[in-house]
Amino acid sequence: CRLPAAGRWCFVAVVPRGNRVYRDRADFFMESDEWLLSRIRLPRHLLMELCNALEPQLRRETRRSNALPVPVQGCSTLGFLATGTFQREIGDRSGIPQPSISRTMPAVLAAIMSLSERYINFPSNNDQQTGIKRDFYAIARFPNVIGAVDCTHVGMKPPSINDYAYINRKSYHSVYVQIICDARMSILNMVARRPGGTHDSFIFQNSNVGHRLHQGALHGQSHLLGEHRTKNLMSATSTALTRRCPAGGTLLYSPEKTCNIILACGVLHNIALANGVPFADLQPVDPMSRDPWPQAPHARALRRREDLIRLF
Fold first, then answer.
1. How far apart are CA 74 and CA 51, in angstroms?
2. Least confident of 12-26, 75-89, 90-104, 125-139
3. What is the pLDDT of residues 216-244, one digit of tens each?
4. CA angle 56-59-64, nearest 5°?
5. Distance CA 199, CA 168 (A)
6. How high is the pLDDT of residue 245?
7. DDE Tnp4 domain: from which residue to which, for each copy (predicted)?
8. How far apart are the C-alpha atoms of 216 and 208, rounded to whole Å?
9. 282: burial class by Cβ within 10 Å (0-12, 13-18, 19+)?
10. CA 135/CA 130 separation, integer angstroms
11. Beta strands 233-235 and 223-226: pairing type?
12. Measuring CA to CA, how many Å separate 35 from each of 31, 170, 268, 272, 273?
C-alpha cells in the first residue's frame, strides 16, 4: 500500500485466518436414565418432553453455523441446577465454553418459569381443596388442611445495592422463600422475591395467597397449617415447631437471578414429583431460631387452634 502523506510504499503481511475449532457437544439423550438422574435429576423421556416444551422460547433464528441446540441449552442449565457445580465444569461436560453457559442460562430459566402456571397452582375451588384435605387427614387425622406453609433461606452473595436488607438472623445474605405445599409435597405456591431480613409473617400477609385468603378464598372451615399467626392460618404451638431445612450452599448471583433460579427449581420439583422421579435424601441442618412475632396472634386463628387441640 502507499502512504498518501509521505508518498512512500509499505508492505503489509496478510496472515490467513485458521478454521474455527468446535468441541464435540454432548448428546445427553444417549446417556442412561441412571446417569441422567445422578447429574440432571430427570430421566430421558422427561428431558425430551421438557426440551420440546422449552423449544419455542429457546430456538433462535441465526445465520451462524453450529448454533447451540435446545437440548444442549436446557440440559446444561438443568445440570447446573441439579448439582450446583461451577459453570466451567458443566461446560466441560456439555462440550461448550463457560461463557456460552452464562449467556444461555437466563433464557432457559425464563422458559422454565413460564411453565409455572401449568405446574404450580394454589387450589381455588372446593373440589381441589377437598382432595388436599383428604390427603392431609390421612397422614395424622388433622381435618380441613389445604396446605402447609413455611419459609426458608437460600444463601447468596452480598448484592451491590441494599446489601444490609439481605442479611438474615444468622448474619449471612439470603433470599427468604415462602413455600406452600400439599400433603404429597407438591408446591402449591412459591414466593421468592423477599430479602433475607424480611419477617416471614410479612411475606405471607403481602403474598397473593395471603390476599386471596383475606378476601375469603377458603371454603368452609379450611385453613393452612404453618407458623405465621394470622387469620385463616393455623399456627403451631410453641412446643411443636417444625425443623427448617434451608438450602445448602451459596448462589453467586444477583438477587434477581437468584430468585429466578429458585422459582425454576420449584417448577422442576413439581414436574419430577408428578412423574414419580425419586428424590435424593435431604441432609438435616440446624434449625434457625425465630424472631419475636411483630404483632399479637389473630384471635380467630387462636380459637380455631384450641378447638382442634380439644378434638384430639
1. 6
2. 12-26
3. 766 667 888 887 555 556 554 443 333 36
4. 160
5. 9
6. 31
7. 149-227
8. 13
9. exposed
10. 9
11. parallel
12. 6, 37, 18, 16, 19
How far CA 121 is from CA of 190, 192, 237, 283, in Å, comes to 9, 15, 28, 28
Beta pairing, strands 8-9 & 2-3: antiparallel
Dihedral over alpha carbons 84, 87, 91, 96 (to 10 degrees): 140
Residue 281 grid cell: 435424601
Write b or e for each residue in 183-215: b if 16 or more Cβ atoms lie within 10 A of its Cβ, otherwise e.
Answer: beebbbbbbbbbbbbbbbbebbbebebbeebee
Judged by DSSP in three states, 187 sits in strand
- Neighbour-count burial for 95-125, b at 16+ CB within 10 Å, e otherwise: ebeeebbeebbebbbebbbebbeebbebbee
Q: Which residue has the cell 420440546?
A: 52
**Residue 135 to residues 130, 236, 243, 276, Cα–Cα distance (Å):** 9, 19, 21, 17
- Alpha carbons 91 and 30: distance in angstroms, whole number: 18
Nearest CA among 71, 48, 72, 68 for reference residue 60:
68
Element (H, E) at 224: strand 223-226
